[in-house]
Design a protein that fits this description.
This protein is mainly alpha-helical. The chain is 49% helix and 5% strand.
């Protein structure tokens, strides 16, 4: 799955690139979008062509050889599978922190030196991205599919990972869609709310409400979701005994309560007693 990447003005004056053909230079840019967060991808020319040049007659394999000859990429083989690495990828790119780490196997040639240097550069770039969010890519340009722990063009050899983005990451994506950029999927309250069952839709609705009230902050969204879930929980705990509240039932309840409190039946009103006596007297006269 392709990802958004950065391109610098100095690209067009790079002394190695100017020696390459125009097709190879365009392919080089396209490889950035197909590579994972550390600049690795599978070396499959036909599939790369379908991704980058679906309507053009471009010899991708020849262009890859051209880039390899000029030291811009490194094509290598692990077992029976072929891969390539975009050289100095982490020097010029700042992958978004929600992208999953690379799972592409590394070249066995010079592995120790290259891998240690790659990991050091990655940590430095991640620290810079977190310290200066404006230097990172716009999160809206990231396709959620790119957050999966997969290789870019097909499943990684020897690694099967069907995991999807974490619930916290999905929630942060929804919050950003609502217009709140500064989020933190590792926030303790965010993790606690997700574990308690909060859904990405709840965070999106809370973010929309926050924007509408002019309080577009990540903390306000978390507090809103927490408050809503607490209110819903308290409401669910209020149970009532089902009963058909007819007038007769209410009258009976009052009589029963009076009898329980006083130990005797509630006396009838004077008008009711007079009517009852009149009816009994009429019945006696008839007898």
């Amino acid at each position: 799955m392709a990802r958004a990447r950065n391109i610098k003005p100095s690209f067009f004056k790079n002394p190695e690139l100017v020696e390459c053909s125009l097709e190879a230079r365009l392919l080089f840019i396209g490889l950035w979008t197909l590579a994972d967060r550390e600049g690795y991808l599978e070396d499959r020319p036909k599939r790369i062509k379908m991704e980058l040049f679906p309507g053009d007659d471009v010899d991708v394999n020849r262009c890859l050889d051209e880039l390899d000859e000029h030291g811009l990429i490194d094509r290598y083989t692990v077992g029976e599978s072929r891969f390539l690495h975009v050289c100095k990828f982490l020097k010029h790119q700042h992958p978004h922190h929600l992208e999953k780490p690379s799972t592409i196997p590394r070249s066995q040639t010079g592995l120790k030196v290259n891998l240690d240097k790659s990991q050091t550069n990655l940590r430095q770039n991640l620290d810079k991205t977190q310290a200066n969010p404006s230097d990172s890519l716009n999160p809206d340009s990231l396709n959620p599919e790119s957050l999966r722990n997969e290789s870019d063009l097909s499943t990684t050899v020897g690694v099967v990972d069907n995991s999807s983005p974490s619930l916290e990451a999905q929630a942060c994506i929804e919050i950003r869609k609502a217009g709140i950029e500064r989020v933190n999927p590792s926030h303790a309250k965010m993790i606690a709310l997700c574990k308690a069952g909060a859904t990405p839709d709840e965070f999106r609705d809370a973010a929309i409400e926050a924007k509408g009230r002019g309080k577009a902050s990540f903390a306000y969204v978390l507090a809103t979701v927490e408050g809503r879930r607490r209110d819903a929980s308290e409401l669910g705990n209020l149970t009532t005994k089902p009963r058909n509240h007819t007038r007769a039932n209410v009258h009976d309840d009052r009589k029963r309560a009076y009898a329980e409190l006083t130990g005797q039946s509630k006396p009838e009103p004077a008008l009711v007693a007079a009517q009852r006596q009149a009816i009994e007297g009429a019945a006696n006269r008839l007898d």
